Protein backbone atom coordinates (compact mmCIF):
# COMPACT_ATOMS: atom_id res chain seq x y z
CA UNK A 1 0.00 0.00 0.00
CA UNK A 2 2.80 2.43 0.91
CA UNK A 3 4.64 1.66 -2.34
CA UNK A 4 1.47 2.37 -4.37
CA UNK A 5 0.91 5.71 -2.61
CA UNK A 6 4.50 6.74 -3.16
CA UNK A 7 4.42 5.78 -6.83
CA UNK A 8 1.16 7.64 -7.40
CA UNK A 9 2.39 10.66 -5.48
CA UNK A 10 5.67 10.92 -7.36
CA UNK A 11 3.90 10.75 -10.71
CA UNK A 12 1.69 13.66 -9.70
CA UNK A 13 4.28 15.74 -7.90
CA UNK A 14 3.79 19.48 -8.25
CA UNK A 15 7.05 21.49 -7.85
CA UNK A 16 7.07 24.90 -6.24
CA UNK A 17 7.53 27.88 -8.58
CA UNK A 18 11.06 28.78 -9.64
CA UNK A 19 12.49 32.08 -10.77
CA UNK A 20 12.71 32.68 -14.50
CA UNK A 21 15.52 34.54 -16.29
CA UNK A 22 15.90 36.31 -19.62
CA UNK A 23 19.49 37.10 -20.61
CA UNK A 24 19.58 39.25 -23.74
CA UNK A 25 22.30 40.84 -25.86
CA UNK A 26 20.83 43.07 -28.55
CA UNK A 27 24.03 43.54 -30.59
CA UNK A 28 25.71 41.49 -33.30
CA UNK A 29 29.01 41.95 -35.18
CA UNK A 30 32.53 41.29 -33.95
CA UNK A 31 33.20 44.81 -32.66
CA UNK A 32 30.31 44.31 -30.22
CA UNK A 33 32.18 41.40 -28.61
CA UNK A 34 31.71 42.92 -25.17
CA UNK A 35 27.92 42.76 -25.32
CA UNK A 36 27.96 39.01 -25.89
CA UNK A 37 30.48 38.63 -23.07
CA UNK A 38 28.35 40.76 -20.73
CA UNK A 39 25.44 38.38 -21.19
CA UNK A 40 27.58 35.25 -20.95
CA UNK A 41 29.10 36.45 -17.66
CA UNK A 42 25.66 36.76 -16.10
CA UNK A 43 24.51 33.47 -17.63
CA UNK A 44 27.51 31.52 -16.34
CA UNK A 45 27.07 33.00 -12.86
CA UNK A 46 23.50 31.75 -12.81
CA UNK A 47 24.72 28.32 -13.90
CA UNK A 48 27.29 28.31 -11.08
CA UNK A 49 24.36 28.73 -8.72
CA UNK A 50 22.82 25.61 -10.27
CA UNK A 51 19.96 27.41 -11.93
CA UNK A 52 18.64 25.11 -14.64
CA UNK A 53 18.71 26.02 -18.32
CA UNK A 54 14.96 25.48 -18.54
CA UNK A 55 14.62 28.53 -16.27
CA UNK A 56 16.81 30.68 -18.55
CA UNK A 57 16.08 32.12 -21.97
CA UNK A 58 19.50 33.00 -23.43
CA UNK A 59 19.32 35.35 -26.40
CA UNK A 60 22.69 36.31 -27.95
CA UNK A 61 22.96 37.09 -31.68
CA UNK A 62 26.76 37.00 -32.04
CA UNK A 63 28.74 33.78 -31.48
CA UNK A 64 32.01 35.52 -30.65
CA UNK A 65 33.91 32.33 -29.87
CA UNK A 66 33.38 31.00 -33.39
CA UNK A 67 33.83 34.27 -35.27
CA UNK A 68 36.60 33.99 -37.87
CA UNK A 69 38.16 37.20 -36.52
CA UNK A 70 38.74 35.57 -33.15
CA UNK A 71 42.48 34.95 -32.65
CA UNK A 72 41.67 32.29 -30.06
CA UNK A 73 38.98 30.15 -31.75
CA UNK A 74 36.39 28.59 -29.49
CA UNK A 75 37.18 30.94 -26.62
CA UNK A 76 35.10 33.78 -25.20
CA UNK A 77 36.78 35.24 -22.13
CA UNK A 78 36.07 38.40 -20.16
CA UNK A 79 39.64 38.82 -18.90
CA UNK A 80 41.95 41.00 -21.01
CA UNK A 81 44.84 38.99 -22.46
CA UNK A 82 43.48 35.73 -21.03
CA UNK A 83 41.79 32.59 -22.38
CA UNK A 84 40.22 31.38 -19.16
CA UNK A 85 37.63 31.19 -17.88
CA UNK A 86 36.11 30.31 -21.24
CA UNK A 87 32.52 31.53 -21.05
CA UNK A 88 31.67 29.64 -24.23
CA UNK A 89 31.80 26.27 -22.48
CA UNK A 90 28.54 24.46 -21.70
CA UNK A 91 26.27 27.17 -23.06
CA UNK A 92 22.68 26.28 -23.92
CA UNK A 93 21.65 28.83 -26.55
CA UNK A 94 17.93 29.45 -26.94
CA UNK A 95 18.03 32.18 -29.59
CA UNK A 96 21.02 33.02 -31.81
CA UNK A 97 21.83 35.13 -34.85
CA UNK A 98 18.72 36.43 -36.63
CA UNK A 99 16.42 34.71 -34.13
CA UNK A 100 17.40 37.37 -31.62
CA UNK A 101 14.89 40.03 -32.63
CA UNK A 102 12.12 42.12 -31.15
CA UNK A 103 9.39 39.68 -32.16
CA UNK A 104 10.92 36.67 -30.41
CA UNK A 105 11.84 38.76 -27.38
CA UNK A 106 8.22 39.92 -27.11
CA UNK A 107 7.07 36.29 -27.45
CA UNK A 108 9.23 35.34 -24.47
CA UNK A 109 8.07 38.30 -22.39
CA UNK A 110 4.40 37.68 -23.19
CA UNK A 111 4.69 33.92 -22.74
CA UNK A 112 3.13 33.41 -26.17
CA UNK A 113 4.84 31.27 -28.78
CA UNK A 114 3.94 29.97 -32.20
CA UNK A 115 3.35 26.25 -32.44
CA UNK A 116 6.74 25.66 -34.08
CA UNK A 117 8.69 26.95 -31.09
CA UNK A 118 10.22 23.91 -29.34
CA UNK A 119 9.55 23.45 -25.66
CA UNK A 120 13.24 23.83 -24.90
CA UNK A 121 13.05 27.46 -26.05
CA UNK A 122 10.09 28.39 -23.89
CA UNK A 123 9.92 29.92 -20.45
CA UNK A 124 6.91 29.20 -18.30
CA UNK A 125 5.88 32.49 -16.72
CA UNK A 126 3.20 32.69 -14.05
CA UNK A 127 1.96 34.89 -11.21
CA UNK A 128 3.76 32.61 -8.73
CA UNK A 129 7.24 33.26 -10.15
CA UNK A 130 9.77 36.05 -10.00
CA UNK A 131 11.28 37.20 -13.28
CA UNK A 132 14.71 38.71 -13.85
CA UNK A 133 15.72 40.16 -17.21
CA UNK A 134 19.27 41.34 -17.96
CA UNK A 135 19.69 43.06 -21.31
CA UNK A 136 22.59 44.98 -22.80
CA UNK A 137 23.45 46.62 -26.10
CA UNK A 138 23.30 50.01 -27.78
CA UNK A 139 20.61 52.49 -26.82
CA UNK A 140 19.68 56.11 -26.35
CA UNK A 141 16.87 58.37 -25.20
CA UNK A 142 13.86 56.07 -24.92
CA UNK A 143 15.10 53.22 -27.11
CA UNK A 144 17.37 50.21 -27.45
CA UNK A 145 18.72 49.06 -30.81
CA UNK A 146 18.21 45.45 -31.82
CA UNK A 147 21.04 44.20 -34.05
CA UNK A 148 21.51 47.72 -35.46
CA UNK A 149 18.42 47.31 -37.65
CA UNK A 150 15.32 47.77 -35.47
CA UNK A 151 14.45 49.64 -32.31
CA UNK A 152 12.65 48.76 -29.10
CA UNK A 153 11.00 51.98 -27.92
CA UNK A 154 9.97 53.07 -24.44
CA UNK A 155 6.24 53.09 -25.24
CA UNK A 156 6.56 49.49 -26.48
CA UNK A 157 8.24 48.52 -23.21
CA UNK A 158 5.40 50.19 -21.33
CA UNK A 159 2.81 48.31 -23.38
CA UNK A 160 4.52 44.93 -22.98
CA UNK A 161 5.01 45.25 -19.22
CA UNK A 162 1.42 46.39 -18.78
CA UNK A 163 0.24 43.31 -20.65
CA UNK A 164 2.46 41.12 -18.49
CA UNK A 165 0.88 42.63 -15.40
CA UNK A 166 -2.63 42.13 -16.79
CA UNK A 167 -1.91 38.50 -17.73
CA UNK A 168 -0.29 37.88 -14.32
CA UNK A 169 2.94 36.57 -15.82
CA UNK A 170 5.06 37.40 -12.79
CA UNK A 171 4.88 37.81 -9.04
CA UNK A 172 7.67 40.39 -9.07
CA UNK A 173 9.96 41.37 -11.93
CA UNK A 174 13.44 42.89 -12.00
CA UNK A 175 14.41 44.36 -15.39
CA UNK A 176 17.98 45.55 -15.96
CA UNK A 177 19.43 47.38 -18.96
CA UNK A 178 23.07 48.21 -19.67
CA UNK A 179 23.28 50.72 -22.53
CA UNK A 180 23.59 54.43 -23.20
CA UNK A 181 20.64 56.24 -21.62
CA UNK A 182 19.48 52.88 -20.28
CA UNK A 183 16.95 54.03 -17.70
CA UNK A 184 15.00 56.05 -20.30
CA UNK A 185 13.70 52.79 -21.75
CA UNK A 186 11.98 52.09 -18.42
CA UNK A 187 10.82 55.51 -17.26
CA UNK A 188 7.36 55.12 -18.81
CA UNK A 189 6.76 51.67 -17.25
CA UNK A 190 3.89 51.79 -14.75
CA UNK A 191 3.30 48.07 -14.19
CA UNK A 192 3.19 47.21 -10.50
CA UNK A 193 5.60 44.95 -8.64
CA UNK A 194 8.38 45.78 -11.07
CA UNK A 195 11.91 46.93 -10.34
CA UNK A 196 13.77 48.71 -13.14
CA UNK A 197 17.51 49.35 -13.22
CA UNK A 198 19.38 51.30 -15.87
CA UNK A 199 23.16 51.59 -16.07
CA UNK A 200 22.98 55.22 -17.20
CA UNK A 201 20.60 58.18 -17.22
CA UNK A 202 19.38 60.53 -19.94
CA UNK A 203 22.22 61.79 -22.12
CA UNK A 204 24.83 59.54 -20.52
CA UNK A 205 27.00 56.86 -22.09
CA UNK A 206 27.67 53.27 -21.10
CA UNK A 207 31.43 52.80 -21.20
CA UNK A 208 33.52 49.75 -21.98
CA UNK A 209 36.21 48.40 -19.68
CA UNK A 210 39.81 48.14 -20.86
CA UNK A 211 41.10 46.78 -24.15
CA UNK A 212 42.36 43.29 -24.92
CA UNK A 213 45.85 43.20 -26.46
CA UNK A 214 45.13 39.87 -28.16
CA UNK A 215 41.83 40.82 -29.82
CA UNK A 216 42.31 44.62 -30.02
CA UNK A 217 38.79 45.24 -28.75
CA UNK A 218 37.08 45.85 -25.43
CA UNK A 219 35.82 42.67 -23.82
CA UNK A 220 33.28 43.97 -21.32
CA UNK A 221 31.28 47.00 -20.26
CA UNK A 222 31.88 48.60 -16.88
CA UNK A 223 28.35 48.20 -15.53
CA UNK A 224 28.06 44.54 -16.52
CA UNK A 225 31.51 43.75 -15.16
CA UNK A 226 30.71 45.43 -11.85
CA UNK A 227 27.44 43.51 -11.65
CA UNK A 228 29.19 40.22 -12.37
CA UNK A 229 31.85 40.71 -9.69
CA UNK A 230 29.27 41.87 -7.16
CA UNK A 231 27.25 38.70 -7.75
CA UNK A 232 30.30 36.46 -7.63
CA UNK A 233 32.29 38.02 -4.80
CA UNK A 234 29.65 39.55 -2.55
CA UNK A 235 26.12 38.27 -3.05
CA UNK A 236 27.35 34.69 -3.27
CA UNK A 237 28.76 35.00 0.25
CA UNK A 238 26.20 37.38 1.75
CA UNK A 239 22.71 36.43 0.55
CA UNK A 240 21.08 39.05 2.78
CA UNK A 241 22.46 41.95 0.73
CA UNK A 242 19.81 44.28 -0.65
CA UNK A 243 19.31 46.19 -3.87
CA UNK A 244 20.65 49.23 -2.05
CA UNK A 245 23.92 47.36 -1.55
CA UNK A 246 23.97 46.55 -5.24
CA UNK A 247 23.35 50.17 -6.23
CA UNK A 248 26.25 51.34 -4.07
CA UNK A 249 28.66 49.46 -6.36
CA UNK A 250 27.84 51.65 -9.36
CA UNK A 251 29.93 54.66 -8.41
CA UNK A 252 30.24 57.54 -10.84
CA UNK A 253 34.04 57.83 -10.63
CA UNK A 254 34.49 54.47 -12.39
CA UNK A 255 31.34 54.16 -14.49
CA UNK A 256 31.11 57.82 -15.61
CA UNK A 257 27.33 57.45 -15.50
CA UNK A 258 24.53 57.68 -12.96
CA UNK A 259 22.83 54.32 -12.59
CA UNK A 260 19.19 54.66 -11.61
CA UNK A 261 16.73 52.35 -9.87
CA UNK A 262 12.94 52.61 -10.19
CA UNK A 263 10.76 50.58 -7.81
CA UNK A 264 7.09 50.20 -8.69
CA UNK A 265 6.12 48.57 -5.41
CA UNK A 266 4.01 49.82 -2.55
CA UNK A 267 5.86 50.63 0.66
CA UNK A 268 9.16 49.14 -0.53
CA UNK A 269 12.52 50.80 -0.93
CA UNK A 270 15.83 49.45 -2.20
CA UNK A 271 16.97 48.62 1.34
CA UNK A 272 13.86 46.47 1.85
CA UNK A 273 14.43 44.15 -1.12
CA UNK A 274 16.90 41.28 -0.93
CA UNK A 275 18.85 40.97 -4.15
CA UNK A 276 19.10 37.20 -3.74
CA UNK A 277 15.32 36.90 -4.08
CA UNK A 278 15.85 37.58 -7.79
CA UNK A 279 19.45 36.61 -8.45
CA UNK A 280 20.02 33.60 -6.25
CA UNK A 281 16.84 32.14 -4.78
CA UNK A 282 16.89 29.09 -2.59
CA UNK A 283 16.67 25.89 -4.57
CA UNK A 284 13.16 24.42 -4.50
CA UNK A 285 12.28 21.36 -2.48
CA UNK A 286 9.22 19.15 -2.45
CA UNK A 287 6.38 21.27 -1.19
CA UNK A 288 3.35 19.16 -1.91
CA UNK A 289 2.21 16.07 -3.75
CA UNK A 290 -1.18 15.66 -5.36
CA UNK A 291 -2.82 12.28 -5.83
CA UNK A 292 -4.60 11.43 -9.05
CA UNK A 293 -8.35 11.72 -9.46
CA UNK A 294 -8.40 14.86 -7.29
CA UNK A 295 -8.01 12.87 -4.10
CA UNK A 296 -6.64 14.28 -0.84
CA UNK A 297 -3.32 16.14 -0.88
CA UNK A 298 -0.51 14.31 0.81
CA UNK A 299 1.28 16.98 2.87
CA UNK A 300 5.03 17.32 2.59
CA UNK A 301 5.66 16.24 6.15
CA UNK A 302 3.70 13.02 5.76
CA UNK A 303 5.34 12.35 2.42
CA UNK A 304 8.81 12.73 3.91
CA UNK A 305 7.87 10.37 6.74
CA UNK A 306 6.89 7.76 4.17
CA UNK A 307 10.10 8.32 2.25
CA UNK A 308 12.16 7.79 5.39
CA UNK A 309 10.20 4.79 6.59
TrEMBL record:
GO cellular component annotations of the record: GPI-anchor transamidase complex
Family matches, as InterPro entries: GPI_transamidase, Peptidase_C13
Molecular function as annotated in GO: GPI-anchor transamidase activity
Record key words, sorted: GPI-anchor biosynthesis, Signal
Domain of life assignment: Eukaryota
Listed GO biological process terms: attachment of GPI anchor to protein; GPI anchor biosynthetic process; proteolysis
Pfam families, alphabetized: Peptidase_C13
Pathway(s) of this molecule: Glycolipid biosynthesis; glycosylphosphatidylinositol-anchor biosynthesis
Family, similarity comment: Belongs to the peptidase C13 family.
PANTHER family assigned: GPI-ANCHOR TRANSAMIDASE
Protein name per the record: GPI8 transamidase
